[in-house]
Amino acid sequence: MQTSSDRHEYPSHWEADVVLRDGGTARIRPITVDDAERLVSFYEQVSDESKYYRFFAPYPRLSAKDVHRFTHHDFVDRVGLAATVGGEFIATVRYDRIDADGRSASVPADEAEVAFLVQDAHQGRGVASALLEHIAAVARERDIRRFAAEVLPANTKMIKVFTDAGYQQKRHFEDGVVRLEFDLEPTDRSLAVQRAREQRAEARSVQRLLAPGSVAVIGAGRTPGGVGRSVLDNLRAAGFTGRLYAVNKALQAKEIDGVPAHRSVRDIAEPVDLAVVAVPAPYVPEVVAECGEHGVQGLVVVSAGYAESGPAGRERQRALVRQARTYGMRIIGPNAFGVINTSPDVRLNASLAPEMPRPGRIGLFAQSGAIGIALLSRLHRRGGGVTGVTGVSTFVSSGNRADVSGNDVLQYWYDDPDTDVALMYLESIGNPRKFTRLARRTAAAKPLVVVQGARHAAAPQGHAVRATRLPHATVSALLRQAGVIRVDTITELVDAGLLLARQPLPAGPRVAILGNSESLGLLTFDACLAEGLRPLPPLDLTTAASAEDFHRALTKALADDRCDAVVVTAIPAVGETPAQDAALAQALRSASASAPAKPVLVVHVELGGLAEALSAAASTAPQAASTAPGARQALRPAERPATAVGGPSEASPRLIPAYPAAERAVRALGEAVKYAQWRREAADPGKVPEYDDIDEKGAAEQIDELLSRGSGLTLAPEDACVLLGRYGIEVHRALPAPTPDEAAAAARTLGYPVALKTTAPHLRHRADLGGVRLDLTDEAQLRRAYTELTDLFGTPEVLRPVVQGMAPRGVDTVVRAVIDPAAGAVLSFGLAGAASELLGDTAHRLVPVTDRDASSLVRSIRTAPLLFGWRGSAPVDTVALEELMLRVSRLVDDHPEVVAVSLEPVVVAPRGLSVLGATVRLARAPVRDDLGPRTLPVV
Q1: CA dist., res. 162 & res. 115, Å (int)
Q2: What is the bridge-based pairing of β-strands 918-922 and 16-19?
C-alpha cells in the first residue's frame, strides 16, 4: 500500500502496467514518501551525462533536500510518476504547476513544467514516451492544459520524445536552452502516434512469445506422460530451431532424451526467452520469481487451478499476473493449451497438441483448449489436410487470458507477413471497445473471422470481463460494422477461413452456378437467394460431363462480366477413380487461373478424392504454375484492390475450397461478399460534420454545473431541452397539466390544436394503450379528453399529464445514445412502437457517427421502407433525421458525462421533424478510457 505524499489522497487510479517498445512491461505509479531509498538507488545508476542533461550541470548525487522534494507531492500542483521493473525505478517524470512568469503556482494556473530522467540501461525502450502519455493524462485531470520543458540542444533523445508525441507545440531557443511548449489537448496526430506505439509494443510482446530463441519447459518429468513432459516432447518432435531446456526440481539426470536438464531456471547458463510452466499452482509463484530473476521474457502457463476454480483461484490468478508484470514478463494463460508457430525459422509447438499443423497463412486464436483442438483438427482434415496457404501460421490458446488476450494477438497479426486470414474463437471479450477498434484496422488489411461462444450465458468463470447492458445481437452488429466476419459455429469459422485464405474476394453478389447435377444446382440457387446473393440460372452439364466439359464451362462463366463468383457443383459418377478426381481438380484449377480476381467454390457430395485433389494435399511443396492462358498471380492482401482481397499469397498455388453441402459453401461466399462490400466502403468511411451552431463550451459549463448537484442524475425536462438546444436539437415544448384548468391554460399558451398525453412510466410512449389524445382543437375537447384519461388510467398524480402542441404528421421514430461500460458510446435507431420493440428492429452504430454511418443507420432497420414511401405513402425527410443523429452523436462524443440520451418519439414528416420527448442522463466521466494513455488491463 502506498502512502500519500502530502495533503491529497494517493491516486491509485494513476497506477498502470504498460507494454514498452521492446515488448517488455513496466509499471507506472505515483512517487510517494516511501520511495526515498528507491529514488536514491535509481539516481546512482544514471550516468553523469544523463544527470547533466536533467539538471544542466554536474550533479553527482541527490541531497536530502532533493530527495524530499522529489518524493513529496500534493498530486495536484506537484506530481511525480515512476516507471518500475522488479519494484525498482527505471525512469521518472515530474511536473510542477507554474504561472505565466514560470514561478510555482496553484489552481487556476493551467501550465506546468515537466522533466524526465531515464536510466541509461533502459533508454530506447520507449519508457519516456509512455511516461509522457500518463503524466499528460494526469495533468489534464488536474486542469493543466499546457506543458513546458527546457532541454539542452545536445539532448536529442528527449527533444525527439516531445516532438514525436504529436501535440501542437512551440519551440524557442534562449540562453543555450531549447524551450518547448505544447498543449495537452489530444489531437488526431497525437492519438495516431499513441495508437501506432501501442500496436508496435503489443505486437512485439506477442512476437517474443511466438518466436523465442530458447525455451525452458518447467515441470518436465523424466518419464513420458504428464503435461510438462508432453509439451517437451511436442517441442522436440516439431523440430524447434532454438535452444531447449527441461527444468524440474526432482531431476538428477543432466538431460532428457538429449535435452539439457536442470533443477532450476537459475542453473541455465544461457538466456531463456520463453518458459512453459507446467507445475501445480501452489509452486508457480516460486517458478515465476526464478524466471523473472533470470531475465525470462515471457511465460506460457498451462497449470490449472486459477480463476476457473473459484474465488480463491481468481485471487491466485491476479497475484500471478501482478508478479509476472513486476519482472516485465507477459503471460499466456493460466490454464492455457499453448502456442504454435509453424514458421520454418522457428517451428515452435509449445502446446499440448501432439502434432505440429502444416504451415500456412491462417492465424488461429482460441480461448478454449478443447475448441482449439477441434479447430486444428478440422483444418487438418478439410481439403485433404492443411497444406499450402490453408495451413496455420500461428496458433494461440489463451486459457483464462489473464494477461495476453485476443487484442494483443490482433496487434501481432495486423502486420505479420506470414498471416493472411485471422480466425478467432472467443468466449468473452474483455475490452470490446478496444477490440472493435483493433478489428476495424485489422479487417481493413486482412479478413478477420470470429465465432463467439457463451453467447447466451455468462462468460467462463476464468474470464474477467466488463459487464455490458447490450444484448449479444447488438454487440454482434457492432462487430460487423467494424469489418468482423461474424459466424455462429466453428464449422462456419473453418468454412469461411478456407475460402478467404484460398480465394480472392468477390467484386459483387452475382453468382454463376454450374455442375453435373440439376438438383444440386437448384439447391445452390435457393441457398444463394437465402443469403442475399444474386444467382444466375444454374447451368446443368448433366451427369455425363467430363473434366474437359467442366473446364470449358468454368472458363466461360469466369469470363462473363455478369458474374462475380462461381459455385461448381459435382456429384460422383459410378465407378469414378482417383485419377478422374485428380483430372477434374486440375481442370477446375486451370480454368480458375484464367480469372484470378474471381473466387471459385466447389460443392461436392461424398467426393473424398476431389476435395483432396482440389487442395493438392499430397505435398506442401510449391505446385507447378498453371499454364492456362491468361493465368496471373494473385496479389498479397496489402497489395490487392478491395475487390480482390484474401486468397493465396504470391508464392502459393490457386487452391479451391470444397464443401460437402451447398448451404455451407454459399454461406461462406455470402460472408465474403459482405466483407468485400465493407472493404470498399471502409476506403471512404465518411466524416463527422461540423455544425456552426453547436455551443460545445456552453454545454460543458452547463454539464459541470448540473453535476455539481450530484452524479448519476436524470435531467429535468427543462434542463434537458436547454442542453440539447446547445447542439441544435429543438424539443417540442410540453407543459405540465396537473388539473383540467391548468391543461386549458397550457393549451391557450401553446395554441390549438394540441395533444394531451400521460408521462407516467408505465404509459409513456405507449400510444397503443390509449394514453395519448391528439388533434384537440378547442377547450371542450381538451377537458373531455382529460376526463377520459383520468377515468381510464387513474388520478392526475399517477398519470402526470402534459399538453403539447401538435406536430406535423409523419413516421414516429426513436433515436437513442448510451454509454455502455464495455462497448463504449453507441447510437441506436428504430421506429417507435411496440411492434419494433417486440421484433428487436433496432440498428446501432458506434459513436462518433459519420455522415455515411448515419445514412446507413436509417436504412438498416427492416421497417426502413416506411420512411421511403412504402405503398404510396409520402417519403419523409430522412436528411433531417440523419442530421439529428449526427448531432446526438456529437453531443455524446464531445461530453462523456452524457451517458444516455433518448429522443422518443421523433416524428419525421415529409419536411422536417419534431422531437416530442427527450430524456438525458449525466454521470461523472470515467477517469481513464480507451482514449486515455496506453495501459494493460487491470487485474
Answers
A1: 11
A2: unpaired
Q: Is the pLDDT of residue 937 over 90?
A: no
How far apart (Å, rounded) are the C-alpha atoms in residues 481 and 682?
Answer: 10
What average pLDDT does this structure show over 392-418? 94
CA torsion through residues 167, 169, 174, 176, sign: positive
Beta strand residue intervals within 517-652, DSSP E: 534-535, 539-540, 565-570, 600-604
H/E stretch holding 284 reads helix 284-294
Angle formed by the axes of helices 406-414 and 188-210, nearest 10°: 100
Cβ-based neighbours of 760, under 8 Å, separated by 6 or more: 771, 793, 798, 799, 800
Distance in angstroms (rounded) separating the CA atoms of residues 441 and 198? 13
- Given a contact cutoff of 8 angstroms between Cβ atoms, the answer to whether 541 and 557 are in contact is no
Q: Is the pLDDT of residue 645 over 70?
A: no
222: cell is: 523424466
Instruction: Report the pLDDT value the prediction gives residue 538, as an integer from 0 to 100.
Output: 97
What band does 638 get if pLDDT is binned at 50, 70 and 90?
very low
Q: Rg (Cα) of the chain, in Å, rounded?
A: 32
Which cell numbers hold the place of 673?
461478399
Hunting for cell 486470414 — which residue is that?
421
pLDDT at 363 over 90: yes
The dihedrals phi and psi of 613, each to the nearest 5 degrees, come to: -65, -40
| Spatial contact of 403 and 288, defined as CB atoms under 8 Å apart | no
Q: Which residue has the cell 421502407?
A: 865
DSSP 121: G
Whose CA is closest to 805, among 898, 734, 739? 734
Closest listed residue to residue 887, CA positions, set 927, 854, 842: 854
Q: Respond yes or no on whether the N-terminal peptide bond of residue 537 is cis (omega within 30° of 0).
A: no
d(CA 401, CA 405): 5
Q: Is the peptide bond before 108 cis (omega within 30 degrees of 0)?
A: yes
Pinpoint the alpha helices (H) of 840-876: 851-860
Helix (H) and strand (E) counts in the chain: 27, 39
Q: How far apart are CA 904 and CA 757, in angstroms?
A: 13
Of all helices (H) and strands (E), which one includes residue 183?
A: strand 177-183
Q: Please give the Cα distance from 430 to 459 (Å, whole number).
A: 10
Q: Rounded distance, CA 443 to CA 474, Å?
A: 19
C-alpha to C-alpha distance for 25 and 318, rounded to whole angstroms? 16
pLDDT computed for residue 481 by the predictor: 87
Distance CA 657, CA 653 (A): 12
- Provide the pLDDT for residue 131: 96
Q: Among 420, 443, 415, 574, which residue's Cα sits nearest to residue 500? A: 420
Judged against a pLDDT cut of 60, whether residue 148 lies above it is answered with yes
Strand extents, DSSP E, 75-168: 78-85, 88-98, 111-118, 146-151
Check: CB of residue 240 under 8 Å from CB of residue 211: no
Q: Which three cell numbers stand for residue 14?
A: 494513476
Residue 628's SS3 state is coil
CA distance 117 to 94: 9
pLDDT in tens, 590-609: 999 999 999 999 998 764 55
pLDDT tops 80 at residue 662:
yes
Omega within 30 of 0 (cis) for the link into 848: yes
Phi, psi of 587, deg, nearest 5: -65, -40
Q: Which residues pair with 831 in a beta bridge?
A: 813
- The total of other beta-carbon atoms located within 10 Å of residue 713's CB is 14
833-840 long-range Cβ contacts below 8 angstroms, 24+ apart: 833/767, 833/768, 834/766, 834/768, 836/861, 836/863, 840/471, 840/473
Average pLDDT (877-898) is: 94
Asked if residue 121 lies in contact with residue 45, where contact means CB atoms within 8 angstroms, the answer is yes
At 261 the three-state DSSP class reads: strand
- Of these ranges, 589-593, 669-673, 820-824, the one predicted with the greatest mean pLDDT is 669-673
Least confident of 259-273, 645-659, 703-717: 645-659
